[in-house]
Amino acid sequence: MPTIYAIAPMEGAALRGAILDAADQVFVRHGFRGAAMEDIARVAGVSPDSLYSQFSSKEAIFAAAVERTLDAFRERVAGLLRRHGVAVETRVLDAFCTAHTTTIGSAIMGDIIAACEALVAPLIRAFERDLAAEVAETLAIAGIPARWSAEGLSADDLAGHLIILSVGITHKAADPVDYRARMASAIRLVCRTPKLVR
C-alpha cells in the first residue's frame, strides 16, 4: 500500500524549516544511516517532491540540519557564557553541556559522529573554534589565565585543553549527567589556582 502524505500547504522558508525540524527528529531517532528521505517527508507532512525541491539528498538535509543546530548552539553558548552573577565555572560548564551532550548515551551516537566527520567536518571544526574563542574570552575576563601565567598558559591554551577534554569525555560518559560530573571536575581544575610542584 502506498504511503499517504498529509500535505501541508508550505513553501519557501516554512517548507525548509518543517523539513529540517523533521530531519532533526528522524536523525536523532534513527541515526544518519537509518534515516530515509521518505521518513523525513512523512514526519514533515510534505510530499517527496516537496522534500526534493528543497534538498537533493539525505546528505544535503543532514548538512543543513547540522548547520542550523550549530548556529543555535553558538547563540545559546554565547548567552550562557555572558550571564552576570553566575560563577565562571558554572557558565563554562553549562556552555560545554549545551555544545557537547546532544547524543551522549544514545545508541546512534557513533553513527551521527561518523556522518559529521564524513559530511560536515569543516562546520564542526568552525564550531569548535568558535566555542574555544568564547570560552577563552570568558576565562580571560574572569582572570583565570593570570593564575596560570607561571606555567606559560594563555586563555586560548586553557580553552583548547577544555575542548579536548570535553570531546574525550563525550566518548566515555554514560549519559549527560555523567558527562556533566566529569566535565565539572576538568573545569574546576582549570579555574582554580594551580599548585606548583617544584
Description:
The protein has 198 residues and is mainly α. It has helices at 12-34, 37-44, 48-54, 58-81, 88-100, 109-119, 121-141, 144-147, 155-172, 176-191. α4 (58-81) runs antiparallel to α5 (88-100). It contains 10 helices and no strands. Helices cover 73% and strands 0% of the residues. The radius of gyration is 20 Å and the shape is elongated. It folds into 2 domains: 1-56, Orthogonal Bundle (Arc Repressor Mutant, subunit A); 57-191.
Structural class: mainly alpha
The proportion of strand residues reads: under 5%
Number of strands: 0
Task: Please count the helical segments.
Answer: 10
Give the total of domains: 2
Portion of residues within helices: over 70%
Largest sheet: none
Cα(first) to Cα(last) distance is: 76 Å
Rg to the nearest angstrom? Answer: 20 Å
Regions with little confidence, pLDDT below 50 for 5+ residues: 4-8
SSE series: HHHHHHHHHH
Based on CA inertia axes, which overall geometry fits? Answer: elongated
Structure keywords:
single chain, 198 residues, Arc Repressor Mutant, subunit A, 2 domains
How are the SSEs placed, and which strands pair?
Layout: H1 12-34, H2 37-44, H3 48-54, H4 58-81, H5 88-100, H6 109-119, H7 121-141, H8 144-147, H9 155-172, H10 176-191
Describe the structure concisely.
The protein is mainly α.
